[in-house]
Structure formats: structure tokens, C-alpha cells
Design brief:
143 residues; alpha+beta; two-stranded antiparallel sheet; 3 helices; 46% helix; 24% strand
Length: 143
């Protein structure tokens, strides 16, 4: 078999696998992107998802809010993939709490719905952690 024929067969097989993979990815109901207003919408197909995902990241649209409290960071972001895994309500937003440069999350809360609901979730987590940190500070004062 000639090298040219082998290359052509390889390209044909690769092209078929690529088409099949793209069809499978397009059928996944879990992919979401943000519209121009920062609201989630289902991605129509895998290629559109990649294009919009890149656009959203370039504009930092996926970042809802970041709040620093001393060494603690509360961060709320858009997830792009339904973390409810196709359940009744898509889970598309996540708020996490980190301390210092430690990449381990101390708290994690997720929600579905709109950007406004994600902003409200962020505020609730910040309030809860401010109270938690205040209580820790008060306990240290008593010692």
C-alpha cells in the first residue's frame, strides 16, 4: 500500500470520526452559553458553544461577582455546563469561597436561573461568611 493511499484512508477515517463526535456533542443538552446581556441560553451546537464561550471569557462575562474579605475570596461564576446533569432545573451558577492562594474551596453553593439569582446567591454567601468570620474573631478575643 502506498504512503499516499494510507494517508488518504487515515484522513477519511478521521473525518468520519470527527463528524460522529460533533453529532454526539451537539446532542448533549447540558451546554449553555451567555447571551449579550449575560443571561444563560442553550447552545445550539458545539461550534457555536465554543465561539460564544470564548467571547464570554474574553469579556469576563462568566464572572458574576468577586468579594474579598481579608484572606478570603467569594467568587460567583457561570458554569457553561448544567451541573444538574439534565435534571428539572439546569444548575448553571456557582459560588465558592477560597482562603489565600489555596485552591481548595471552603464552601460551594450552586443555583439555576438568571444572573440576578446568581448575584443574590453571591450576596447570601458573602453575608454568611462575614458572620462566620466575625464569630471566629470574637472567639479568639475571648481566649
Amino acid at each position: 500500500m502506498s504512503e499516499e493511499k494510507s494517508q488518504k484512508e487515515f484522513e477519511e477515517v478521521f473525518a468520519e470520526l470527527f463528524r460522529e463526535t460533533q453529532e454526539q456533542l451537539n446532542s448533549l443538552p447540558l451546554q449553555y452559553v451567555l447571551d449579550d446581556n449575560g443571561e444563560p441560553m442553550k447552545a445550539k451546537n458545539y461550534c457555536e458553544n465554543l465561539r460564544l464561550w470564548e467571547k464570554n471569557h474574553r469579556k469576563d462575562m462568566h464572572i458574576v461577582a468577586k468579594t474579598m474579605m481579608g484572606d478570603y475570596l467569594v467568587s460567583t461564576v457561570f458554569l457553561f455546563v448544567d451541573h444538574g446533569w439534565g435534571g428539572h432545573v439546569p444548575i448553571l451558577w456557582e459560588t465558592m469561597v477560597f482562603k489565600g492562594s489555596n485552591a481548595v474551596d471552603l464552601d460551594c453553593e450552586r443555583c439555576g436561573g438568571s444572573r440576578e439569582q446568581a448575584e443574590a446567591q453571591h450576596k447570601r454567601v458573602v453575608k454568611r461568611w462575614r458572620m462566620k468570620l466575625w464569630r471566629q474573631k470574637q472567639k479568639r478575643k475571648k481566649k
